[in-house]
Amino acid sequence: MKKVLFVLTSHDKLGSTGEKTGFWIEEFAAPYYELADNGVLIDIASPLGGQPPIDPKSSDPSSATEDTKRFDKDSELQAKLSKTHKLADIKQADYDAVFYPGGHGPLWDLAEDKNSIALIEAFYNNKKPVAFVCHSPGALKNVKVAGEYLVKGKRVTGFSNTEEEAVGLTKVVPFLLEDALQSNGATYSKVGDWQPYAVEDGLLITGQNPASSKLVAEKLLQQLNTKK
């Protein structure tokens, strides 16, 4: 059986707004169920271990999807989520791929987390797929392979500047994801705000926004199934 690591943020403060952030439920639940329902084993890790913070806005009924409703009733997965492994204890050799759900949290912690950076580099250098959605491509900001940014010359997507503007957080986030990817040499593309869109460039798979999370998981599953 294939085994995938999910990496979630441990960061819960939305800049200096006094509001909470974390990971976005849809971007965790949709890929989790897509992979698990197809027989993939999944472990969950975060920088601090234990219960990772959930962005309260992603629990709002207006953000609900079939997958988030399933998650709300899934006491087994909720219990598993409350006991995430510490990122420092994880070894890429134990997994076939890594998946990073988004939410605003990763822009603060995973973008700078040395364990996360080293882990992504290790997966990529060992020819294992690395997948990201929405804000989580921010975790690639400081990732390098052979001395160059991993995203340099790669086709990628991620939460767009216009989407950040639409949620009113352009001046709150530590960096704008679209700009950061481009300044590291990526070929960034996007579709209309909130539309599903995922880009695959070799082992690197990225999705634009919450609506793209299942698409990313489907592409990841395809790669896992074609690997011996």
TrEMBL record:
<comment type="similarity">
    <text>Belongs to the peptidase C56 family. HSP31-like subfamily.</text>
</comment>
<dbReference type="GO" id="GO:0019172">
    <property type="term" value="F:glyoxalase III activity"/>
</dbReference>
<dbReference type="GO" id="GO:0016740">
    <property type="term" value="F:transferase activity"/>
</dbReference>
<keyword id="KW-0346">Stress response</keyword>
<protein>
    <submittedName>
        <fullName>Dimethylallyltransferase</fullName>
    </submittedName>
</protein>
<dbReference type="InterPro" id="IPR050325">
    <property type="entry name" value="Prot/Nucl_acid_deglycase"/>
</dbReference>
<keyword id="KW-0456">Lyase</keyword>
<dbReference type="InterPro" id="IPR029062">
    <property type="entry name" value="Class_I_gatase-like"/>
</dbReference>
<feature type="domain" description="DJ-1/PfpI">
    <location>
        <begin position="27"/>
        <end position="222"/>
    </location>
</feature>
<feature type="region of interest" description="Disordered">
    <location>
        <begin position="51"/>
        <end position="75"/>
    </location>
</feature>
<dbReference type="InterPro" id="IPR002818">
    <property type="entry name" value="DJ-1/PfpI"/>
</dbReference>
<dbReference type="GO" id="GO:0019243">
    <property type="term" value="P:methylglyoxal catabolic process to D-lactate via S-lactoyl-glutathione"/>
</dbReference>
<dbReference type="Pfam" id="PF01965">
    <property type="entry name" value="DJ-1_PfpI"/>
</dbReference>
<feature type="compositionally biased region" description="Basic and acidic residues">
    <location>
        <begin position="66"/>
        <end position="75"/>
    </location>
</feature>
<dbReference type="GO" id="GO:0005737">
    <property type="term" value="C:cytoplasm"/>
</dbReference>
<keyword id="KW-0808">Transferase</keyword>
